[in-house]
C-alpha cells in the first residue's frame, strides 16, 4: 500500500504534459489491446475504446466486458493504474481551472481582445462608467487597470489588470493599442488606503498616467477626469481629447435644478441609456442637403436632431448645407434609433 501511495504522490508532482500524454497512451494502447485480445467480444477498436473509458471513469455500463484470461488481466491493470491516473488528470484539470480563475481575479492575465474600453483607477465614478458602458453595449469588453490585490468588480465582460498604469508593461497587458478609448479617473486613495485631500496631487498622478499614454499610444481617444479646473492648463502638452470636471458638473446641475426644477433629471436621462430617451449619433443620408431636410425627416420618424458634433445651434442654421463629415446627434428611444441609424 505504501508503494502505491508513493507512486500516486510522484504522479501528482510530475508535469501536466507528462500526465496527459501518459493517460492518452494508456487509453490508446488499452483500447487496441483489448480488441486484439478479444475481437469477437468487442467487434471493433471503437468498442474497445468505449470499454476502456467506462472502466477508467468507473462508470461501468456492462455492455462490454472481457471473457478471456488475457482480457481480464488487462482489465485488472486498468483498475489498478488507469483509474488512479484518470483521477490525477481530473484533479489537475480542476486545479488549472481554479488557477485560471484566481489569476483572472488577481489581474495577472493579458487581455487579447480589441475595440474595448480601458478604465484606469477604480473609484465611484469608474464604477458608474463601467455600469453605463455595459448597459449601453451588450457586447463591448472593458479592461479595468488598478493596483488592488483582486478585482473590485466581477463581471464576464470586465477584465481586470493589476499594475501601475504609469508603466508601459501594464498598458500592454491591457492591450491599449487596440482599445477604442481610455478613461483615466481621478483616484483620491493611495496604495496604503489613505485619502488625498489636495486635488493637485490627485491631478498630478492623472497627468503622469496621461503622459505615459500619450508617449506610447498617441492615437487612442483619451478621456481624463480632473478634480481642479485650474489644473487643466498643466495638461496642455498632453493630447487629451476630453476632460471631465466632475465637481463642476455636479455644481452646475444643482444650480440649474434650483432655477429650473426637473432640469437635472433631463440631463441625467440623456447621459444614461438606462432610462427614457437617449442621445445617439447617426450618419448623414445621401439625399439630405440641408439641416432642415434632416430635421424634418427625422422628426417624422420620431427622432429630434439636436447637434452636429458639439454645435448645438443647428436649429438656427437649418438652411445651411450639411458637411460630408458631419456627426449628427439625435434624441430618441432605442427602437427609433434602430430604425433611423
UniProtKB/TrEMBL annotation:
It comes from the Bacteria. It is a multi-pass membrane protein. Pfam families: Ion_trans_2, Slo-like_RCK. It comes from Alteribacillus bidgolensis. Keywords: Ion channel, Ion transport, Membrane, Transmembrane, Transmembrane helix, Transport. InterPro entries: K_chnl_dom, NAD(P)-bd_dom_sf, RCK_N, Trk_Ktr_HKT_K-transport. One of its GO terms (biological process) is monoatomic ion transmembrane transport. PANTHER family: POTASSIUM CHANNEL PROTEIN 2-RELATED-RELATED, POTASSIUM CHANNEL PROTEIN YUGO-RELATED. Its main location: membrane. The chain crosses the membrane at residues 18-37, 73-94. GO terms for cellular component: plasma membrane. It is found in: Cell membrane. Gene3D superfamilies: 1.10.287.70, NAD(P)-binding Rossmann-like Domain. This is Voltage-gated potassium channel. Residues 114-245 form the RCK N-terminal domain.
